[in-house]
Queue: 2 jobs
Job 1
Amino acid sequence: MSDSTVKFILSEKDIPTTWYNIIPDLPFQMMPPLHPGTLQPMNPGDLSRLFPMAVIEQEMSSKPEIDIPGEVLDVYRLWRPSPLFRARRLEAALRTPARIYYKYEGVSPAGSHKPNTAVAQAYYNKREGTRRLATETGAGQWGSALAMACSFFGLECSVYMVKVSYDQKPYRRALMQAYGADVTPSPSPKTAAGRSILAASPDSPGSLGIAISEAVEDAATHDDTKYSLGSVLNHVLLHQTVIGQEAQLQMEMAGEKPDYVVGCCGGGSNFGGLALPFVGETLKTKGSGRRGPRAIAVEPSACPTLTRGVYAYDYGDTAKVAPVAMMYTLGHGFVPAGIHAGGLRYHGDSPLVSALFHHGLIEARAVKQLPVFEAAVLFARSEGILPAPESAHAIRTAIDLAVEARETGADPAILIGLSGHGHFDLAAYDAYAAGILEDYEHPQDEIDRAIAELPVVNITAGEAS
């Protein structure tokens, strides 16, 4: 076997011109989001305080494909199509018969997959007259992407960055500021939600749930401001499907059908963007005898939403001001440990990803921090790319699958979503090299206490019990 990495490159004409909406292909009905005050199904008017109408229409759309505006495609051409590589050097290091491919989104200007939806959201907000966007960010990848997109379309950008990541990743904060964003550590004294958290816990490390509360409050209390988020909701995963659509073409170029599609999963944007086109293809050909790939969502053991959470309606944020969604959740009050994969520290998950998991159409695994960094370093030494800690969760599972193939004699094709580079995560790699990085698996009693605070909802009718 040659140990050289093989690259599969598409041309600009291969950039998808539509986003793929899996909802019409689902063999079940999605449960509607609920109003956080009334616990009744939300209508477009309820969402209009937070989002532009075009985004609301996409959130609720039943169209199988949605056209990508020309202005968005013009920006996509800065980095799309992104490359797909065969990781022959990693295969050789593992001595595996498995064939490992990775779709690399770290080539975007912001260094991750997040601009695929940031650019779209900024465009629609600008078109409808929004002056400023407020958002949250964990590790800073989403905040960087939205800050960049806002600079392209002449919008102001306010980012509430989870405090532990604000301190751990100062260069992601610097990147956001270079793009013109105002960055605030969360919880902060700027909002009522932040002040409440600080009063109860002055040393709170923050969480995505808390940061969402602050960003939503900011948007809801300013007439010229809308809220933007980088994961969880349907329209975000919709925009990310350019990843999976390109990967389908590139796997065809490689003469392969993946046996596994593996992505890290916090709120679901990266995993969904890669996996949904493959899952949709399987659903469309059901009954034909064709076997689709096993899609595996990989999450941290410190925030095991799919693997240890419950499937129920829950608030999308800590202060209970964001929409209530049917999802796998650890409870809106859950605050995970300050692991370096800040983008995966969300108490809930995408309702769409959650429903796919609930109905057995995808799988989930949880992995600890030290094995994740072990895999990341092996990948960097084999392939030369230093992955973001979030992305390294998918690499860890892909390596485990490849080692399993070596032991069983199987020869699967494994497709990894490499969602971003780790150039701004060097403090985490420094801690790993120094031997001071810790594993963490959240105690079950803390998860149980957070889950006990879930709202009581009649999930059949979508009404309060």
Job 2
Amino acid sequence: MSKQTSAFLQDFSRFYILLILYEGPCHGYGIISKFRKRIGKDISPSLVYPFLKQLENENLVKHECKPLGAKERKVFELTKEGKELCANLFKRFSNLVSSVIAPTLSICANCGCKVFEGGHREKIKGREMAFCCVHCAHSYKKNHKAR
């Protein structure tokens, strides 16, 4: 893997760490476990803990030592500034993803909802039309026969 690819994946990993913290307080091992469970990949503690320390130094995260089971763990939580940063990052990321996905969406000819994958296509009066489901296709045909 190239250095550039590795750096990109680390940035994605950091982004996902922020997402986990945005969902609520979590200790370091909890972040590692959630990452592995959701992404299906391991994340190195040597990425997680220095990043948490960096966030803490920038007043974006705070920690509190809490007993969890037989051990005491540092539980990390986003500060108000950290939550605001995340909200802005997620909004920008959402806009980026939307602009990438938009060209691949179909619009249901009946209800107007956006369909990313699947859906139902039918030829009506020689024209192929997109619907979100067979029920919308049926409703469309029923409503357009009466006109």
